[in-house]
């Protein structure tokens, strides 16, 4: 039961401490939501806020950063047109000042009940077309963040439930994309 006069059916803020990576992923999700749907993928560097304020005070001021804790997402240039996401991510190398990275991308997903009906052996383009035409498909925005030390976080927002209170979070929600982002810190 809420401790104030808020009706019980209104979601209450979480009172537990939210890890910095989760806060950064949710901040990016909210930023992307403000831009609307049908947007290209967006890549972000995640930098330690205290380090950014100390080493790049002009950038910190330009980004209107307050406080010295957590991670600050810094949007990168647009991703190149026509280059598959996995190929693009394989070209990235981050400087040491970058603590992690995050990506937000829109995709079509099927519920688990529909996945069992996928025809065997469809090549990539035909599978994408099949999913796009499936009556149970759902448009989602995936926001995935990883840190150099291996920590991961994801946020999934369904287009049909486009509200901050409906965003699903968890470290293992989009493992393939998390692996691809983590690989940008290897070698």
DSSP E strands, number = 6
What is the domain tally? 1
Mean pLDDT score, rounded?
A: 86
Question: H/E element string?
Answer: HEHHEHEHHEEEH
Relative helix content = 25-40%
**Most strands sheet:** 6 strands, antiparallel
* Overall 3D form: globular
Trace the largest sheet across and list its strands. Answer: 2-1-3-4-5-6
What percentage of amino acids are in beta strands? 15-25%
Low-confidence stretches: 1-8, 10-15
The whole-angstrom Rg is: 18 Å
Secondary structure tally, helices = 7
**First-residue to last-residue Cα separation:** 51 Å
Global structural class = alpha+beta
Account of the protein in words:
By secondary structure, the chain is an alpha+beta fold. It contains seven helices and six strands. The N and C termini lie far apart (51 Å). The protein has helices spanning 20-35, 49-55, 57-62, 85-89, 112-115, 124-133, 175-182; strands at 42-48, 71-75, 98-109, 138-147, 152-158, 168-170. 24% of the residues are buried. It is 30% helix and 24% strand. Strands 2-1-3-4-5-6 form a six-stranded antiparallel β-sheet.
List the keywords.
six-stranded antiparallel sheet, disordered N terminus, 6 strands, 24% strand, 187 residues, single chain, alpha+beta
Brief summary of the model shown:
This protein has about 190 residues and is α+β, with helices and mostly antiparallel strands.
């Amino acid at each position: 039961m809420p401790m104030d006069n808020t009706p019980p059916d209104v979601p209450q803020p979480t009172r537990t401490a939210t890890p910095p990576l989760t806060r950064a992923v949710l901040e990016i999700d909210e930023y992307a939501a403000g831009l609307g749907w049908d947007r290209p993928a967006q890549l972000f560097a995640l930098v330690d806020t205290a380090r950014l304020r100390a080493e790049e005070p002009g950038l910190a001021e330009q980004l209107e950063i307050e406080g010295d804790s957590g991670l600050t997402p810094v949007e990168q240039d647009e991703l190149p047109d026509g280059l598959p996401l996995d190929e693009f991510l394989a070209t990235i190398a981050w400087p040491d000042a970058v603590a992690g990275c995050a990506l937000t991308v829109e995709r079509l997903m099927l519920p688990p009940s529909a996945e069992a009906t996928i025809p065997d052996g469809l090549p990539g383009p035909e599978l994408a077309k099949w999913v796009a035409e499936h009556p149970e498909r759902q448009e989602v925005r995936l926001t995935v963040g990883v840190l150099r030390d291996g920590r991961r976080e994801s946020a999934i927002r369904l287009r049909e439930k486009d509200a901050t209170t409906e965003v699903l979070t968890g470290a293992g929600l989009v493992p393939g994309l998390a692996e691809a982002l983590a690989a940008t810190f290897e070698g």
